[in-house]
Amino acid sequence: MKKVISFIIRTVPRKYLQLFSHHILKVVSIFMRGKNVTCPICDISYRKFLPYGRLNPRSNALCPDSLSLERHRLMWLYLKEKTDFFTAELKVLHIAPEICFLDKFKAMKNLDYTTADLESPLAEVKMDVHDIPFEENTFNVVFCNHVMEHVEDDIKSMSEIHRVLKPGGWAIIQSPQDYSRQETLEDPSITDPKERERIYRQSDHVRLYGLDYGKRLERAGFAVTEDKYVMELPEETVQKYALPAYEIIYFCQKR
To answer: Radius of gyration of the chain from Cα atoms?
Structure first.
């Protein structure tokens, strides 16, 4: 199963996976039901989640119904416990919207919710994150996860998110990190897809962030809180929802 999933992820264009994979996995999920793990987004329990990953698929990672991964389930719990996202009247911009959140956020009556992306068929607005087509001080909340490792100028893109936030507004801008590295690894001369995959973990990545990621977000103007929320949760909660063992959530606020 791991080899099959790895092959599909690496060979099928992402836009087609976004459009069609959930229909197939809805059928698969029927045979996976159980009581060992639960997805907090769709509130369905399973014997285990599906494996997921490009090179070395992780066990117990992908929910077949919501299509959430470990980081998505963590973010859902974080929003529930540590923000007013589910109760306050908020104008929200979701860049590169994840399918596991899309219908849930659209259905929330307290949100004025807009999705945007350069290529995603799930997004309402087609845009380049380097040049966001909204006025400054427009949104209360912006989500932009697993995008900055792809863009040419990450500080410019982060600054654009900062610009469109209202004062006091906040963003969650997560990216893959190597927590063993102090500084971000990036080299514009590395253009070969295989070499990028070896160095940055994926062929379409242009950098691999280190522990300086929060400092880069601060350069874009944000006040950044590096929240180790998952490390504060009971072990039984981490296991129940199959959360990442370690992930820093970057809560970015516009002063």
So the answer is: 18
Three-class secondary structure of residue 240 per DSSP: helix
Mean pLDDT of the chain: 93
Residue 236, pLDDT > 70, answer yes
- Give which of 146, 125, 134, 138 is closest to 169, Cα–Cα: 138
The pTM of the full predicted model, rounded to 2 decimals, is 0.90
CA 118 – CA 111 distance, rounded (Å)? 23
The continuous run of DSSP H or E covering 62 comes out as: strand 58-62
Over residues 107-162, the pLDDT tens digits come to 999 999 999 999 999 999 999 999 999 999 999 999 999 999 999 999 999 999 99
Structural domains of the chain, ranges and CATH numbers in brackets = 2-68 (no CATH), 71-253 (3.40.50.150)
Q: Which residues contact 254 (CB under 8 A, 6 or more apart)?
A: 162, 165, 166, 167, 168, 169, 170, 171, 221, 222, 223
DSSP single-letter state for residue 185: B
